Amino acid sequence: MHTIDVNDCDMSAVLFIEPETPEGKALAARLQDGLELLDTDTVAVAAKRLERAWRVERSYEAVQAVCMQLVRDLSGAAPREPSDPRVLAAIEYIRQRVDESVSLPDVAKAANLSPERFRHLFVEETGMPLRTYVLWRRLLHVWTLLMAGANLSTAAHAAGFADSAHLSRTARAMFGLPPSVLQMRGPLSSQKREPHHLA
Question: Are 156 and 163 in contact (CB under 8 A)?
Answer without folding.
Answer: yes
